[in-house]
Design a protein that fits this description.
Layout (H helix, E strand, L loop, with lengths): L3 E8 L3 E9 L4 E10 L3 E3 L2 E3 L2 H18 L6 E5 L5 E5 L3 E2 L14 H6 L4 H8 L8 H10 L3 H5 E6 H10 L3 E3 H4 L5 E2 L4 E2 L1 H6 L9 E3 L3 E5 L2 H7 L5 E4 L4 H7 L10 E6 L3 E7 L6 H6 L2 E4 L5 E7 L3 H12 L6 H10 L20 H11 L8 H27 L5 E5 L6 H11 L2 E4 L4 H13 L6 H11 L3 E3 L7 H11 L3
Parallel strand pairs: 1-6, 6-15, 10-13, 16-20, 20-21
Antiparallel strand pairs: 1-2, 2-3, 4-5, 7-8, 7-9, 11-12, 14-15, 16-17, 17-19, 18-19, 21-22
Helix pairs in contact: 10-17, 13-15, 15-16, 15-19
């Protein structure tokens, strides 16, 4: 089989990058060709994403590939975070910059929405967990304020769909990213016209939904000529970054004794199932049924992830202490274990900025002594994350009647070896960490399936296992975890 090269654009909340993925029929190789910062832009009183700035970076990467490297591409695909959307008007006009999911404008929107459609009804339709910034509540806010862009909109596009539209001119929605919106019927996998109409959200702006691993169309001629890549196929991979990361989990898919944690700014912990699980117990635990690849459902729970560490690092940088993640983690490893604990998903930690102060305030509120020093603070976060994984693991087993023996951690968070070991210790399970580049790999893998170079997701996972070194962590038997588990349970409710 001839080797093929694909270009994956992987955009996260801190940065974006362009990665070349080569697949020779047996093994994958990755090469990062462009990296750029990404983050919210405050404009007056709102947080936005710089949509055209992101597209400019995509064009820059395409020029590197097409002009400087002269690579013959078999496909291009984009994956990003979920929920946030752009609105497109008449004559392909982009109606402003998309709102950032951490914008405070979405505070209180859950309660406002439940006055019109109950929590139970929304969950029965969508099967999705409740987070105040889900696309549904962003739209309810726009409806309530009679937002001018909503009145002029012809199409709604999630972030990866917007970037694919700019490359192809075709406005569509890929299934895994659409499933993050809480506007999709989890059973039919189509937009829920009933839910949208009851909330006065226009159904006419909802685009066609494509399955992951589908060719959207060729790159527009002007862009192909400008960048030198030619009219390469633009592909709907798993356009939600977690969907791509989970696609690349190097597990034996003929077994059901494993779960995954996609670890980065967020931690997404769950399993793959064949159909949505929509029950009162799932609602009570606030689990979610998001779209996966190859007809699967990603049954998972969102966990705050390394965002808290990232925000602490950013706060220290503002004070003139620009510390690297390796240095921060070593400080945490040297700190005393089992000091203060926190619920990483507490609402106090959702906003951007002042994270060390927020954590100290949380500790005082919960009658704990705040961590003394940077190492103790980061250890508090990492131990609390590991305990959250332990808690969610128990709920996963309870809700699905599965016995989970192995936890696969994929993504950038696998570079934090301390967190991986703490996870093995807290859960009492074997942890397999890797690959680091899970999202880009899943993106490339789904492109290879779309072009026919790969036959299936299991075949892709087998190739990933053969291509990358994985690290295994086993429980160390360290003392103190049972008491920490009891303390953590007392701090958390769901």
């Amino acid at each position: 089989m001839a080797s093929q090269t694909y270009l994956a654009f992987d955009l996260g909340a801190e940065s974006g990058r362009a990665v070349l993925g080569r697949f020779d029929g047996t093994r994958f190789e990755l090469e990062e060709v462009h990296r750029f910062p990404n983050g919210p832009v405050r404009v007056i009183d709102a947080l936005h994403w710089d949509a055209l700035g992101l597209f400019s970076e995509i064009k820059r990467a395409l020029n590197v590939v097409g002009r400087e490297k002269a690579v013959n591409l078999a496909g291009v695909a984009v994956d990003t975070w979920g929920v946030d959307v752009a609105l497109v008007g008449q004559n392909n006009v982009l109606l402003g910059n998309p709102y950032h999911y951490r914008d405070p404008r979405f505070e209180g929107m859950l309660d406002q929405t439940f006055k019109r459609v109950s929590r139970e009804e929304i969950f029965e339709i969508t099967g999705l967990q409740f987070i105040q910034f889900n696309t549904l509540y962003q739209f309810v806010r726009m409806v309530d304020e009679n937002h001018p862009a909503l009145g002029a909109a012809k199409t709604m596009l999630h972030m990866p769909d917007m970037l694919s539209w700019l490359m192809t001119g075709r406005p569509v929605s890929e299934y895994t990213i659409a499933s993050t919106s809480q506007m999709l019927d989890a059973r039919t996998r189509k937009w829920s016209a009933d839910l949208l109409q009851r909330l006065n959200i226009p159904t006419t702006i909802m685009p066609e939904i494509l399955d992951p691993g589908t060719v959207i169309g060729p790159m527009q001629a002007w862009l192909a000529e400008e960048t030198g890549v030619g009219q390469v196929p633009v592909i709907a991979s798993a356009s939600h970054d977690t969907g791509s990361a989970v696609a690349s989990v190097p597990a034996q898919t003929d077994r059901n004794d494993w779960c995954y944690i996609s670890s980065g700014t967020w931690s997404l912990m769950g399993i793959e199932i064949d159909a949505p699980r929509i029950t009162p117990a799932v609602l009570e635990r606030n689990f979610t049924n998001e779209g996966g690849v190859a007809g699967t459902i990603r049954f998972l729970k969102n966990i705050a992830g390394l965002y808290l560490v990232q925000q602490c690092r950013a706060a220290w940088a503002l004070e003139g202490q620009d510390l690297g993640y390796d240095e921060i983690t070593k400080m945490a490893a040297d700190a005393e274990p089992f000091g203060a604990l926190l619920d990483p998903d507490d609402a106090a930690f959702l906003a951007i900025g002042q994270m060390p102060e927020r954590i100290a305030g949380y500790c005082r509120k919960t009658r704990q002594t705040p961590p003394d020093g940077k190492g103790a603070l980061v250890r508090c976060i990492l131990e609390s994350l590991a305990l959250r994984y332990w808690q969610v693991l128990n709920w996963l087993e309870e809700l699905t009647d599965r016995e989970i023996r192995t936890i696969h951690i994929v993504g950038g968070g696998t570079q934090n070896r301390l967190l991986s070991q703490l996870t093995a210790d807290a859960t009492g399970r074997t942890v397999v960490a890797g690959p680091v580049e899970a999202t880009a790999l899943g993106n490339v893998m789904m492109q290879a399936i779309a072009t026919g170079q790969l036959s299936s997701v299991p075949a892709g996972r087998e190739a990933i296992r053969a291509s990358f070194k994985l690290e295994t962590y086993t429980p160390s038997g360290a003392a103190g975890w049972p008491d920490a588990q009891k303390r953590f349970q007392a701090l958390t409710t769901k």
